[in-house]
Amino acid sequence: xxxxxxxxxxxxxxxxxxxxxxxxxxxxxxxxxxxxxxxxxxxxxxxxxxxxxxxxxxxxxxxxxxxxxxxxxxxxxxxx
Length: 80
Description:
By secondary structure, the chain is α+β, with helices and mostly antiparallel strands. Helices cover 31% and strands 25% of the residues.
């Protein structure tokens, strides 16, 4: 199974993710949680997925992360 890809993202996707981080006011502490999870090189399931960190969620499809949601916002797909 492929790994979730965090580098060399298409420019429009990368810009979208950075925009969502700013809009959702994801904190440095939250980003550290994301960093630790990324370092574990999680596998990318087929289709939609999400990882709930408590204060935010990262959502993706296949090997790409697609967006960030706030706590309480519903996410689609398989929970990782």
